[in-house]
Amino acid sequence: MRAPTSAQSRLQPDEYLVRFHETPQGRIRSRLFGRGDGGPLPFVAVQGMAVSEYLVPALTALSGHGPTHLVDLPGLAGSGAACELLDVPGYAAAVIAWLDATDVAPVVLVGHSSSTQVVAHVAAARPHRVRALVLASPTVDPAVRSWPRLVLHWRWDSRYPLPGLQRLHTPEWVRAGPRQLRNLVSVHLRDHLEDVLDAVRCPLLVLRGEHDKVCTEAWARQLAELSPDGRFEPMPGPHTFVWSHPTAWREPIRALAS
């Protein structure tokens, strides 16, 4: 991993535990940050759109409140090859298989960007495994739910200064390859997060950066309102606020876990 900058450089773990688990969808890499005695519930975060490393500083910040896992999806980041091109429920099935294999206690399940759709499917399918759900920078907002609109809004969002992020993302995008990247975007465009949340019964926290050009505040608030125990919290920064402001989500998530 290339050296991060500023706030990110101060939030790198001294050590972490790497594990690999076989699932029907492919081999999964997970990393565990923290020693497991910092809070009442473990946190499990799932990587974003083909990328994983950018979450490390924000998860290092979160790990002060409890054991924190970062799960890479089959075929992406540090995981093994996927058995086939997966859709969103397929990625969710891999996370469910990982939860079952590790037998981790009921968790606070965290998604950022595209993985908000994956974790919502997990929470709906395995309510006994998920104590609370965090959707950070959820996708895909109906306002941008097409290839041209999504690409346009992603480019607008990319104007926000995010030093070091492109260098971090590029090797993971290269590893995914064009075919898998096209499939990722297509299957997430077809999957509607708001429909899945109808089946989620655990407490829900929705986080959105105030400068996010991919997710509107109105839609983020609507998602929170779909849950009988939902809440919305604004964050500083753009869609990838977890990189620009890696400590921002720590207290809202800690409060949710408590």
Question: Layout of SSEs?
Answer:
Blueprint: H1 6-9, E1 17-23, E2 26-33, E3 43-46, H2 56-62, E4 68-71, H3 88-102, E5 107-112, H4 115-125, E6 130-136, H5 147-157, H6 165-190, H7 193-197, E7 204-209, H8 217-225, E8 230-235, H9 241-244, H10 250-257
Parallel strand pairs: 3-4, 3-5, 5-6, 6-7, 7-8
Antiparallel strand pairs: 1-2, 2-4
Helix pairs in contact: 3-4
GO molecular function: catalytic activity
Protein name: Pimeloyl-ACP methyl ester carboxylesterase
Domain AB hydrolase-1: 65-154
Could you walk me through the main structural features you see in this protein, from its secondary elements to its overall organization?
The protein starts with 5 loop residues before the first helix and ends with a helix. It is globular and about 40 Å long. It is 39% helix and 19% strand. It has an eight-stranded mixed β-sheet, with helices on both faces. The protein is an alpha/beta fold and 258 residues long. Helix 3 (88-102) crosses helix 4. The chain has a single domain (16-257), classed as Alpha/Beta hydrolase fold, catalytic domain (Rossmann fold, 3-Layer(aba) Sandwich), CATH 3.40.50. Strand 5, helix 4 (115-125) and strand 6 form a beta-alpha-beta unit.
Q: What is the CATH first-level class name?
A: Alpha Beta
CATH topology: Rossmann fold
Superfamily (CATH H level) name: Alpha/Beta hydrolase fold, catalytic domain
Write the CATH architecture name: 3-Layer(aba) Sandwich
Distance N to C terminus: 33 Å
Q: Give the percentage of residues in beta strands.
A: 15-25%
Fraction of residues in helix: 25-40%
Number of helices: 10
Main beta sheet strand tally, sense and closure:
8 strands, mixed
Compute the number of strand runs. Answer: 8
Please state the overall shape, judged from the principal axes of the Cα atoms: globular
Q: Roughly what is the average pLDDT, rounded to an integer?
A: 94
Which residues form runs of ≥5 with pLDDT under 50?
A: none
Order of helices and strands: HEEEHEHEHEHHHEHEHH
Strand order of the largest sheet: 1-2-4-3-5-6-7-8
Organism: Pseudonocardia ammonioxydans
Protein name: Pimeloyl-ACP methyl ester carboxylesterase
GO molecular function, one term: catalytic activity
